[in-house]
Known about the structure:
The structure holds two protein chains of two kinds.
Chain A: E1 3-9, E2 16-23, E3 27-29, H1 33-41, H2 48-59, E4 64-66, H3 70-79
Antiparallel strand pairs in A: 1-2, 3-4
Helix pairs in contact in A: 1-2, 2-3
Chain B: E1 3-13, H1 15-31, E2 37-43, E3 47-50, H2 56-59, H3 62-68, E4 71-74, E5 82-84, E6 89-97, H4 107-124, E7 129-132, E8 136-139, E9 142-152, E10 155-163, H5 168-174, H6 183-193, H7 197-201, H8 206-221, E11 223-227, H9 232-246, H10 249-252
Parallel strand pairs in B: 1-2, 1-11, 3-4
Antiparallel strand pairs in B: 2-6, 3-5, 6-10, 7-8, 8-9, 9-10
Amino acid sequence: MLRVRLALDESQDPPVIHSITLTGDFFMHPEEAIEDLEQRLVGAPWEAEAIRARVEAFYENDVQVIGAEVADLVHIIMSAQGQE
Amino acid sequence: MTTRWRLLQHGARSAYENMALDEAILRCVTEGTSPYTLRFYRWQPSAVSIGYFQGVEQEVDRQACATQGVDVIRRLTGGGAVYHDYDGEITYSLSIPESYPGIPRKVLDSYALLCSALVVGFESLGVPAEFKPINDILVRGKKISGNAQTRRFGGILQHGTLLCEVDPHRMFTLLKVPNEKIRDKLIAGVEERVTSIGRELGEVDRERVTRAMVDGFAEVLDIELEPGELTDEELALAEELRKERYESDAWIFKR
């Protein structure tokens, strides 16, 4: 199961991702690439297309992700309630 | 030409020692100071391991684990949370360089190859097993083995479970459930979707199971497995990794 902990800067419109941690039972090779993905998402406007573009750009790298598709990540990030 | 590997069978250790040893062996194998290795082990005390990307607080009831004397550890590999019961599981790990001949570059494909050795092992025990992508082995649709892989330091580490007995009630006292109402459903789900060597064969002869898996790897990879020991270098490195990584809060609570 994929989960996200998300903090949004809601003073902006649309809100901007201030910090993000993706967790779950997926695989990513190399594992440390997750930090690159999260870093790419910080500062992104919290809207599906912007998130999708950044996640897609990450997936184009030499990284193997198993058990989490681009659409899954966009969905989980956009369903988050800005908790944390 | 048949390649020689080292076979390690050294019984039970703590979760922290086990995961530190898997990493230490991998590092030494990739540096060329240790031979290619297949290792079988158990967990004492029993432990819950979580995948590299999981959050401890989200997955594990730490209070229940502490009360029951169950250790909690983060693995080097991704995947889900696993309860490793001392009596209920045989665990294996395999360490080779990434350049090992015939190993697919794609992780998904390499699961298929390496898990097929276990399938051969199960079949020789009379258990009709099949590989189910991504990384499971099933018997008549029920899981009997889960596997996880990492590629680091220029090497491949794959470790996995061979389920001997399954106790879903105990499992779900240690793992968190989304809400109490569905606990019974989850337990029933595991009973339906998971099997074990004990259930399939009516008994668990650990030596026989291990021997069958060793023969499966020997056949599929065309290797010769020679019983060996851990090296001083591996033991020293594992001790360091245990203290500095696997037992540390910084690692366990990493995500």
